[in-house]
């Protein structure tokens, strides 16, 4: 039963109207224990076929995430400009007006970009143009941007070779900020490696330490791969670490303006502990 004053319809009606499959009545504690022992698994949901053996054959035959380029399936087909700022209670998405004289020209790569990242870039003072994942470094540099943003996205970063090559060509020529998949692609562009996590990181309560300030942030995360710091061989400095399993959560280059984080500072609803990263990007462009 909906209780929010903005609610227009109950959840089940929304799901049915949009033909979205959902489940309920699952023993989530038993599921959590299973995942803890066996790691993340591919699942199958059916509203038509209820034969368990047949469904099991289907899910076992399904292609996994490793080795698949899912970015091509979700990226935009042509460039577009983004002007919408973050949501406010009083005015919705129309609440912020950015001073045009103070805007920084940012090219944002769409590897599966979240709109709230774009809203936060606008709020930080950026004039944002979103481009497809296959856009070359030469095409981006021809636009003379103040900075380049590398977005989040689905799946395994290693098969996205065209983006890795592009980022390699951009490093050192323009300030770079990456989030999630963009963070992993930056690590690969530097010659590093990524690996699949046994469980992955999901949810809005992941503790991360900023090693430069020793402050702990509560972060929102949703990824199944991580960067191997040892493989970077000193080309980047570890800036953020996950306090649960000590995996990499942030990197920065010491000699050129570029940094990235594995988690989602734009998460809405929160936590909002990491909003400062958008200001850090703007400060880098100012420099």
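Sequence proposed for the structure above (287 residues):
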């Amino acid at each position: 039963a909906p209780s929010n004053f903005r609610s227009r319809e109950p959840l089940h009606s929304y799901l049915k109207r949009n033909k979205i499959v959902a489940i309920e009545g699952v023993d989530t504690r038993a599921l959590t224990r299973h995942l803890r022992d066996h790691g993340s698994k591919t699942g199958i949901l059916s509203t038509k076929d209820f034969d368990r053996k047949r469904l099991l054959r289907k899910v076992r035959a399904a292609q996994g995430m490793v080795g698949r380029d899912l970015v091509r399936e979700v990226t935009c087909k042509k460039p577009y400009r983004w002007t919408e700022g973050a949501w406010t209670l009083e005015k919705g998405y129309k609440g912020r007006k950015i001073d045009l004289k103070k805007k920084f020209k940012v090219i944002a790569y769409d590897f599966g970009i979240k709109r709230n990242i774009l809203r936060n870039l606008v709020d930080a003072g950026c004039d944002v143009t979103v481009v497809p994942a296959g856009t070359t470094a030469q095409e981006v540099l021809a636009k003379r941007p103040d900075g380049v943003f590398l977005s989040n996205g689905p799946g395994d970063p290693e098969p996205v070779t065209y983006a890795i090559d592009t980022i390699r060509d951009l490093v050192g020529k323009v300030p770079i900020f990456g989030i999630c998949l963009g963070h992993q692609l930056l690590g690969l562009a530097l010659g590093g490696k990524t690996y699949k996590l046994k469980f992955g990181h999901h949810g809005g309560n992941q503790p991360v330490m900023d090693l430069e300030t020793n402050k702990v942030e509560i972060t929102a995360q949703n990824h199944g791969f991580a960067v191997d710091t040892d493989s970077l061989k000193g080309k980047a400095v570890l800036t953020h670490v996950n306090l649960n399993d000590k995996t990499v959560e942030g990197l920065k280059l010491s000699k050129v303006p570029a940094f990235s984080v594995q988690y989602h500072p734009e998460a809405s609803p929160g936590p909002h502990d990491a909003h400062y990263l958008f200001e850090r990007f703007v400060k880098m462009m100012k420099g």
